[in-house]
Amino acid sequence: MSQKDVLRAEAVRNRERIDPASEDPDAIVDLFLTHVKPAHDQIIALYWPKGREFDPYALLERLLRDGFVCSLPVVKKETRVLSFARWDETIPLAEGPFGVMQPAAEEPDSLVEPDILCVPFLAFDRRGQRLGYGGGYYDATIRALRDKKELVAVGLGYAQQAVLFNLPREDHDEMLDWVVTPQGVHRFAP
């Protein structure tokens, strides 16, 4: 078992013990809008939570209400690079690969490239390194988008998912620009 696998197992156990109400998850909305400061011409990608992942629905709901274009990831097994489909409450969701909920009808004209990509994590460190599930989907997606355009990668989670040591980093790992938790904001980009 690799060091990352050991850390991942411990991070999952830690997350299972977090009581979402202990951090006021809705507080993330104002922190995100005040610090990340999305522009109305930017496309924002969020995610539908799986299991005990931080639930960004309050943020998604507010962004949609304020007129932002939002999208959700679409997983395709033949590639690690996620696609993103425009989404609002009128578009039904269906279970995709790995049990992840995603837009049910993926029309070619609904596909977008986000400018701000919100990502879940199991843990994050003070450098902006995130520990994910190990599939590499978000790292590959962040790299692919950064190769095409300016992208802001924002981790969303609980403050209790922070670690006080540096997480191991491999060549394929992509750093986050921000982490926003209900307890505060961490900026890693200059």
How would you describe this structure to a colleague?
This protein has 190 residues and is α/β, with parallel strands linked by helices. Helix content is 24%, strand content 22%. The protein has a single domain (3-187), classed as NagB/RpiA/CoA transferase-like (Rossmann fold). It has helices spanning 3-17, 27-36, 57-65, 137-148, and strands at residues 43-45, 69-74, 83-86, 93-95, 101-103, 111-112, 116-119, 123-124, 130-131, 152-156, 178-181, 184-187. The chain has an eight-stranded mixed β-sheet with strand order 6-3-2-1-7-10-11-12, sandwiched between helices. A hairpin with a 5-residue loop joins β4 (93-95) and β5 (101-103).
Short structural summary:
It is built from four helices and twelve strands, in the order ααβαββββββββαβββ.
Q: What about the largest sheet? A: 8 strands, mixed
What is the level 1 CATH name? Alpha Beta
Percent of residues in beta strands: 15-25%
What is the average per-residue confidence, as pLDDT, rounded to a whole number?
A: 93
* Terminal-residue CA separation: 35 Å
Rg result: 16 Å
Q: What do we call the CATH topology?
A: Rossmann fold
